[in-house]
Known about the structure:
The protein is an alpha+beta fold. Among the domains are: 13-117, PAS domain (Beta-Lactamase); 166-272, PAS domain (Beta-Lactamase), CATH 3.30.450; 398-459, Orthogonal Bundle (Helix Hairpins); 476-621, Histidine kinase-like ATPase, C-terminal domain (Heat Shock Protein 90, 2-Layer Sandwich). The protein is built from 20 helices and 25 strands. The chain has a six-stranded antiparallel β-sheet with strand order 4-3-2-7-6-5, sandwiched between helices. A five-stranded antiparallel β-sheet has the order 10-9-13-12-11, sandwiched between helices. The protein has a five-stranded antiparallel β-sheet with strand order 15-14-18-17-16, with helices on both faces. The radius of gyration is 49 Å and the shape is elongated. It catalyses: ATP + protein L-histidine = ADP + protein N-phospho-L-histidine. Keywords: ATP-binding, Kinase, Nucleotide-binding, Phosphoprotein, Transferase, Two-component regulatory system. Its EC number is 2.7.13.3. This is histidine kinase.
Amino acid sequence: MVIRERYSDQVHSGEILDVLSLNGIPACLLDLRLQTVTLNQQMQGSLQMKESDMSFSQWLHSFRHTGQHRLQEALHQLLTEGRRESSVQLTDIDKFHTYQCKMVHLTNGQIAFSLQAVESQPESSESMTLSTNHDTKDSAALNQLIGYERRSKMIHLSGSTPSHLKKKMSHLVDKFPHGLALINHNWEVTYANPKMEEITGVSFFQNYYRKLWDVFPIHEHYHFFQQYLRAMETQETMEFEGYLSETKTDVQVTVHPTDLGITVFVQDITEYKRHLQALRESEDRFALLANNIKDVFWISQPDFKRLHYVSPSFQEMFGISRQEAFHDPEVLIKNVREPDQANLRAALNEMATKECEVEYRIKGTGQKTKWIRTKGFPVEYNGDLYVLGIHEDVTECKEMLDLKEKSQQLSTITQMSAGIAHEIKNPLTAIKGFLQIGAANPELRDNYQEIILDEVNRIEAIVQDFMMLSKPKSSLQLEQVDPEQLVSYVLRLLEPEANEKQIYLLLDCDPIQDTFETEPKRLNQILINLVKNAIDAVDLGGEVRVSIRMSSTKLTLSVRDNGPGLTPQELAKIGEPFFTTKEKGTGLGVMVTKKIVSDLNGEISYESQKGGGTTVTVSLPK
Length: 622
């Protein structure tokens, strides 16, 4: 094997182990930077190691504890006191064989270890010869490799062939993912791997043994030269970041001093710096948002026993410092009004599996109650589950809703009061007038009794509607009824009224075998109101069709007429107090119908089109 002259200051790990193997010496090499050792076959056999490459600590643990301590002390002295050789006695941990371990600090920064059984070779005092007494030729070859002879000529290992380990080490250096360069004490570049050429944009093949400042101008790389000089003078490893303007590359540089000069490792961190800058900008934007919004953003563990993030507005909203919240997440629940705590806990547990929202009250300043709305949902990130959420102060919204409801109630009461007064005033005026006429003309009194009675009946009907509206839901008396029989009864009841207008009352009904549980009086009232409204809406000779459908879950009643229908504006106002399209109507019938349907836990809907009639559908659950 021939090592080119420009590489002659390096010592190849494979070559050293080859020489040691020729002599049958158990030996290994320690890479100080990677803290890994490479063993030859003899050391693998002596220590019963299966692998040839392992960590230094793993190799060290093959010896007894006292020996480990002595070896580490000797290695420390070797590195700190500038000594080239040292020796220490070790005992392996398996067979309790005693060895004299000798170590040599190689010129390439590596440490060579060899083991010699104490019985066959006595311990020497200071120096260490990595060869047996039977083969001085191999010893001289090793000394040449580790730098005892000057590099004035090509290095030859006659009669030897490249080993698998040698090829492996060469391949690793060439394929090393970071830039690697060797600079001697004369500031000459003696080696650079392909990655270093790629990162710097310099072809080192034409620049070997040129001065470093001839390859890289000092004024452009002043920061780099400062660190190189400091490492060379102090013999301490230097780490720093720099920027290569030629290739527009950000780099992380490690300068490691050796006996030959300095070894420079360069890692391309451009992409890392770009991601880091993007992350910082993203964090700044998020901080700008989080610091200037009243709502509180938070991130928690699914069990809510640990908070990962809470935005700054948390303290203003809850009156609790963020430090307290991080220290004890339960402090939030402790600040919630006691009746709402159970709902909040249940909602938080639900947020760990799906999106959920909850509203609750907290103790505000001055005993003022604040309403908080919390929304949260689960998120998976890098295989871990988190809950993200937001706290909103909805106190003002709640107060506005309450005010709006009270305003609507007041408006409804005012409107209904005016309607009641108007509806009752008309018949009362008629009654009063006819009574006055009867008092003045007793002979005519009998002529007005029928009119007075009709007006009284009208007042009674209005009062009954209001009584129905105020009738509580708790007064329901449920019974099993036959839906078809109940509808037939209502149609027979209203048939005389329909005949007067020559209106056809039709019934569509599927065969129904089961009964239905409801309150007959209220269901009768619903049907009467709906059918009467349909009859009133239809012109002479019209048609009103009632349909009954019952499924396993609900009963559906539908009343359809072919009257003039309603405009979208009129349809939207159905159910409002005293809104009606009838000439003498009060609108209370629709309100009563909706109230009864609600009491029976049902739903009512209206469909209508101007000129196309109206359909009212009532659905009641079974």
